[in-house]
Known about the structure:
This protein is an alpha/beta fold. It is built from 7 helices and 9 strands.
Amino acid sequence: MTNLFDMIERSRFIMIRKIISINEEKCNGCGICINACHEGALQLIDGKAKLITDSYCDGLGACLPECPTGAMEIIEREADEFDEELVKARMEQKKEEQKNEEQKKEDQKPVAFGCPGMRAKTIERREQPVQKTMEGPMESQLRQWPCQIKLVPVNAPYFNNAHLLVAADCTAYAYANIHQEFMRNKITIIGCPKLDDIDYAEKLGEIIRRNEIKSITVLRMEVPCCGGIVAAVKKALMESGKMIPWSVHIITTDGVIVYE
């Protein structure tokens, strides 16, 4: 494989052209620009973003909008010409290094370690008699259909003046009294942030914008992946610009409620 530094030496043709310039005093070392540069021309060195070599920078400035401190600008100066072949070779090398690093991390993982939400366990419970109300068996408190977030129409009439319950799928199975304690007198919509291929924040934002929602209750499981449903509600509320009371309740896999 041709050494990248040899290729750099062969590609050095000086010219006046547009190229990125970084103000080190303004740079806070956040590293956002590193990912924004598709040519891999930038790198964090001693806590500051640096241009590795002129030949990697195409001068188009794709990284500029990503800089939160305004430390980057496009200037014209003497610089080595942009070398597309050199960039391609560097990116291939970086891809290979990343692949090796990921494989190394994978090899170092304990065999039993994995997503807490997928960890198998048996929950021991005492046999209990079927709960009944004064009139008979407990009734469902689901007040509308459909109830899946990805299926509900954003302008459905039942959303107007509703107290909204946004619940993770598994909560209904983990917590037996969900109908009486959480779904009662609420419009219930459910989803799984890990398995559903949908942007919940966008859909929930539309529901909030188009309707007068009185309150939002979020019900999630304790497993980390379930936090996505809380993040989606938070983002939807922020982008809607509406001030709506909301709360989060967490249920453990043993069926115990933890109030947040």
